[in-house]
Amino acid sequence: MQEFHFPTWVNKFTLLIAACAIATGGYLATCLFAAIHPTVVNIGHQPKQPVPFSHKIHAGQLKMDCRYCHNTVDKAAHAAIPPTATCGNCHGGEGTTKGERAIGQIYSESDNLEPVRSSLKTGEPILWERVHDAPDFVFFNHSVHINKGVSCVSCHGRIDKMEVVAQVEPMSMKWCLDCHRNPVPHIRDPELVTQLDFEFDGTDEEEAEYHQYWADRLEVNPNVNCSTCHR
Amino acid sequence: MNKPRTKNETHSQPELLEVQEHEQSPEFQEAIERDFGSAVHDTGDGFSRRRWLQLMGASLALGGVAGCRYQEEKIASFAFRPHNRIPGVPQQFATLTELGGVAEPLISTSYDGRPIKLDGNPIHPETKGGSSVFSQARILEFYDPDRLREPLKSDGDTFTETTFEEFVNACRFGSDVSKTAVLSEPTSSLSMAGLKDEFTTRGGKWFEFAAINDDNARAGAKLAFGDSVRPVYDLNCETILAIDCDPLSMAPGSVANSIHFAQGRDADSGHMSRLYVVESQYSTTGSAADHRLSVRSGDIPGFVASLAAAIDNPVEPTKEMAYRQRVFAAMVSDLTKSKGKSVVMVGESQSPEVHALVHKINEKLENFGKTVTLNKVDERPSSIESIRAFAEGLKNGAITRVVILGGNPVFDAPRELGLAELISGAQNSAHISFYKNETSLACDWISAVAHPLACWKDGTTVRGSILIGQPLINPLFGGKSDLETIATLAGNDETDGLAIIQKTLPPLDRKQWAEAVHAGFIADTAAETFTPSSVNAPEVAASDAWATEWDGSTFELVFKPSNSLYDGRFANNAWLQELPDFFTKITWDNVAQISPATAKELGVTQRGMGAKSKTQMITINVGGEPVRVPIAIQPGQADGSIGLAIGYGRTAAGRVGGNRSLDVDAIGHDITSLRSADQWNLRSIDGSSINSTGTTYQLALVQEPWAIDEVAREEIQARMFRDPNKNETDRSALIREGTLRSYNNFLGEHPDVFEAHGHDQGNAAKSESKTKTAYYSTGPNGELPVMTPVSYTPPVTDDEEESHDHHDHVQWPEAFHMHHSLFDLTPGTREDYKADNPAHTNVWGMSIDLNKCIGCNSCVIACQSENNIPVVGKAEVWRGREMHWMRIDRYYGNNLYTDDAKGDDIQMVHQPVTCQHCENAPCENVCPVAATVHSSEGLNDMVYNRCIGTRYCGNNCPYKVRRFNYLNYTDAVTFIKYPGADKLPAGDLQLQSLMVNPEVSVRSRGVMEKCTFCVQRIQNTKIQAKNEGRRPIGPNEIETACQVACPTSAIKFGDLNNSESDVHKDHANPRSYYMLEELNNRPRTKYLARVRNAHPILIDSDDSHSKPKTHGHDNDEHADGESDDPNHDESGSTTETPSNGQPEANGEKDH
């Protein structure tokens, strides 16, 4: 059988094809990089929860403290999703009324709260969707941040304005390190960490001084060692 | 700790040096293949590379479909959160475990309701937080998917699942129990004793059997005192003589013994106990000995008789005596001089008569009531008598119904009794067990027993302290506790574990009960003591066979508990299977340990060295089926004595230890058939019963003899003991040791040596005044923070005077000194990282006291448990891929201080090695992706996510402490990879991931890992301190896992910057030294030199006058002497294990 040879006129396309291949590769790589960048992947993540719990109503309108529900946040690594019993304090429905005051009877018939009532009845947990998900090789500790005057708002945004919680920060390693390298602007009076709408009343210089004061007083000096977060 | 090798020695060890000759041999090619080629060809378990790539490709494609974001997670919060429970914060509960009829107090760490770690109970006065390997490893057993679940009923050949009710209906004791027998293991549980009493009162028969028992000790005590007592020793005394026993690791109460022993070995106080050991094979106690004679167990009665006679007429030792006689005379002289402050003890291999005679010796030495306490114990027939009576009853029809409570008598009881047939021939038989083991297979019914962590139980320690264990979790696989099962079978009203215990224990009110459960023990409970009025000792014939050369004709088999598997009950525990034996460093196997002379006599060898070596198999024939077992030639073994560890060769252990029905090969060799009821621990045989099979066998060793790297082996050899003739100041010794005499001389010459850190502080103050502003910022109110002085090693500065001070740091032993300080070569790395992060003053460091380490392996298992370290299996260990972050190297050689010992007094040193956290770390420089970097506190951080697996760091680490995940040992489904892992049902694979410590990343394939100094504990303690608003962290507040487990407190960890910390003090100790300091790595771990409290008459030369000339002379003499010594081949200048065999391939047994 006769050997096949490409005709010579094909040669002028060789360079073009090579250039196209490189360009396509570069384009795809850029797409991939952009698509998996934490700011793209993480920000705006807003899963649907089994119970349409509104932080806007509870934390915003009712001004409940974050720690009413997330009560381990200043004691432990996990902020801890509250047990259903905490929901039941207000929404427990039938059988949970204490004395004459119907504190457990708020929206006690609501269909939306059915998972809460059934969890209280059966003891089975409600399966919440995780919104802020640090990778397993990252060991983040809420308590030390809270106790050192870093407000919830620094990482979670204005939760008190969110009907459904969404992630607002990329939570990438660079983002963590930015603050660990320059923590002072995020430090405030630990008493005020859960006050999400906190705004300093004063000039920029006074505000900087305020943050510096608390950073000094709390001896804030975060590590940037690898083993600080990765073990 | 070895003599330098000189040229004229080489002919006595031809196989060690003549590497080139073997280059074309198949063994050598195999070694090359193993070291360089195997990773290319396969992934280790019959899984081709191509197949792997195919699967990986497929999973990548699937991963793409799954979407761009990380896998979404659900959070299942409690419906009702238990009181005081904070999710993710570990809690600790006191509990206990029982082994050998003695309970050990433990504390269990429970993470979100899952027990993940066991440690010694820190508040119990006996163990003070120390724990044994067996206790540590029981956490793995708890999550073992092979454990029994539903009760099973036999249908002839197979078993079908049934219910507990059905089991109880079939096996209940009924009204007439005269023909019912219970066979249990000896237990210290008072509640079980109560149930036993009820049962025997009703006419039932109750037998107790354990393969590792104290029959001879009990019978000996009975003989001596006429009463049932158990001697308890206080090893914090002046002279200890341990005869063929191992009080520091295998005996009941070994943790407490180790603690006391270590207390008496504080060399810095200038006073140490002196430990003599006379034994046939190395025990951990023998490895800690100051003087050790290897004597066949069969000759020990003669030795004890000689001792008893000599105590009455002590003769002062003289240099003219033969070496063994000289040691003997020194021993007698020491014992008689420290009356009331000495201990003599003897082991289970010896007859009751010898035990009684030893009691007599202790009486002569006035030790009773002082160092030897006699505790009353319940009288019971011996294990051997019991099992004989049990078999007899079954045979003659006196017993028709059998309930076997735990244990595995079919496997470990005397085989000549034929228990398997007798039990299956019984009318009804039931086994209440953790596992479906060999005994279960012979029974009609099997019922699962709940794990001790999952039920109420009680127990008693050796010293009689009553322990209470609470359940930490509901039984994982169902099942009831042994107490509950027996109570149910007996038809008792009270069948709840808690109620049974409360009924038995001394009455406690509500508060006392709560306190006892919280503490894990009832305070101030102790055994009733016995004061002997007189001690009777039968005549034992004196003989001096122990002092004479072996005639080459008498052989004996000595059976001992396995240092890993005990009596075989831990055969399915992969951690313990992979735990290297403290001496042979063999994993996943048992061997016949023989001395070089025995090997010569038997005509067996370990050919070649290192990975090329193949050990030979021998057949031992004592009637019945001959037993084949591989040999390991070990120095320090008595000539003619063959040491055999029991517990291996299980055929119904599980997917790790071997299971015939699942086609999983047995691990090791079953040697129980060599034991007979009459000759249980010791059997003398003649040479004709032992034959070389001519076949070879591969062993998986972890302390690597060198396959092809001859240079490395010679370098290690050279670092064992410096040759003063060569004035080798460029090498430091790996192991340093000297005699107490010379250390005391040294301390006399440097009376203020322990003020050294004060002296350092002075230095630090100087540097502080220079650099204070760089270290600290002022507080908000302008106050200066309190400064902890920088006082570990004076910072290197340009100032001549200060550098000079640094050189003044005195060290002992002098023979090992580096003659110039290489620390000056690179100035101030320690300063560099400080400048990076000025406010961090914690400088983490570790110290390991070689004088206290007894090589018990507790730290190795503790580390494995804490840090999620995988098990790799025998084949991978053989390829050198074991993953232990902490290893214990052991070195041995001839007596360093006298030439007369020849091979008679082998000395051993254990050296635990972990990452040294070098400040000038060689691993960090070579990592192309900065996956291993230095933290501001001096930790050598390992960033798993950055690691791309070049293994440059492992290659560049002079300590070889880095471990590489060649395979995915720890993927999400198979946390533990072991021989039968692929035979597990899919759902069970995830079971063991429940045991993972969530504070530590689980590493995957292609990632390097190593000791982190338990960085999770450091970080958590720091966070806790920050949350509580207190600084600084307490001097000894952070404890690493290995440190907690160590019964002798050999390991210290803490802040070198804090002059109050133990580790700071240890680093200033004159005995402290850096391993390989000439490399200028600046390790953060310092070792403290071993001190040997040798008897002055047994020291010809020590380093107290280390003039190079004297040493050179010694060494010349030595070389001559040694080359004449027939034993020298193995026991002479051995460094690591040139005599040890090395495996060739997994699974291949005989060829």
The counted number of beta strands of chain B is 43
User: Low-confidence runs of chain A (pLDDT<50, min 5 residues)?
Assistant: none
Largest sheet of chain B: 8 strands, mixed
Could you say which overall geometry of chain B the principal axes of the C-alpha atoms support? globular
Shape of chain A: extended
- Written as H for each helix and E for each strand, in order along the chain, the element string of chain A is HHHHHHEHHHHH
Q: Helix proportion of residues of chain A, in percent?
A: 40-55%
* Low-confidence parts of chain B: 1-24, 34-67, 756-808, 818-831, 972-976, 1105-1151
- Taking the alpha carbons of the first and last residues of chain A, their distance comes to 65 Å
- Portion in beta strands of chain B: 15-25%
Would you give an account of this structure?
The complex is a heterodimer of chains A (231) and B (1151). Chain A has 231 residues and is an all-alpha fold. In chain A, 42% of the residues lie in helices and 1% in strands. Chain A contains eleven helices and one strand; from the N terminus they run H-H-H-H-H-H-E-H-H-H-H-H. Chain A is extended. Chain B has 1151 residues and is an alpha/beta fold. Chain B has 36 helices and 43 strands. In chain B, strands 20, 22, 23, 24, 25, 26, 29 and 30 form an eight-stranded mixed beta sheet that branches. Chain B has a seven-stranded mixed beta sheet with strand order 6-5-17-16-15-7-8, sandwiched between helices. In chain B, strand 10 (239-243), helix 8 (254-263) and strand 11 form a beta-alpha-beta unit. Chain B starts with 13 loop residues before the first helix and ends in a 20-residue tail after the last helix. At the A-B interface, helix 6, strand 1, helix 7, helix 10 and helix 11 of A face strand 1 and helix 32 of B. Strand 1 (127-129) of chain A pairs antiparallel with strand 1 of chain B, so a sheet runs across the interface.
